[in-house]
Amino acid sequence: MARKSTVLKVSKLRRAYGPVTIVEDFSLEVRAGEAVALTGRNGSGKSTVLRCLVGADRPDEGTVEVCGHPVVETSARTRRDVATVIDDLDFFPDLSVVEHLDLLARAHGVPDADGVVDEVLEQVQLVPQSGQLPGTLSSGQRRRLGLATAFVRPRELLVLDEPEARLDVEGVTWLANRLRAERQDGLAIVFASHEPSLVDTVATRVVELGAPRG
Ligand SMILES: Nc1ncnc2c1ncn2[C@@H]1O[C@H](COP(=O)(O)OP(=O)(O)OP(=O)(O)O)[C@@H](O)[C@H]1O
């Protein structure tokens, strides 16, 4: 069988905040169809690594490439290839749930945007809330909308920071199955998680980050 192509290549990443080095000599290669779980204690640097992967933070040293191109948060290429759910997303206060998803799908040139948005709304169980504004959603529903934004658009790499946060038990099970299916369809995934069931179901590899050093 042909080896799957490398989607993400991280080489010798280092990130320090002041005198404290959080991440040092971190390298990672993720191929299409692989899912890497970043685990480790609070403060071990998982979010720091993920922010560097998507270009939301700049490493002090090292390089990050997606599909052979350097990651730059503002580049069209990076935005096309990388779907992220990290931190709490900012939503437009005056666009409804369905309008957010429509906007994203159309901006990314998704064929049959209406059909894709309807399908994802069903999957994240936000059909009854599709006309609501983000400010009126429950915190778990806002997380579901955040996840939906990643699923209505094209993607080669999915980067998720604690995607299970604020989901109910049924939601975590759905998410685990959905991410496993995405990986089996050939997507590359990197996610940080404290949820063992999610890691067990989704990850093909687990990378545990250590404690920060002073
Ligand atoms: N902008 C910043 N300035 C100073 N320190 C920071 C900054 N961002 C993160 N840190 C520190 O870097 C360390 C790693 O934080 P990070 O958020 O990457 O951890 P994490 O592994 O994702 O933790 P958690 O499991 O709690 O989400 C923490 O000690 C944090 O306080």
Automatic annotation (TrEMBL):
Gene3D superfamilies: P-loop containing nucleotide triphosphate hydrolases. PROSITE patterns: ABC_TRANSPORTER_1, ABC_TRANSPORTER_2. SMART domains: AAA (SM00382). One of its GO terms (molecular function) is ATP binding. Residues 8-211 form the ABC transporter domain. InterPro entries: AAA+_ATPase, ABC_transporter-like_ATP-bd, ABC_transporter-like_CS, P-loop_NTPase. It comes from the Bacteria. Belongs to the ABC transporter superfamily. This is ATP-binding cassette domain-containing protein.
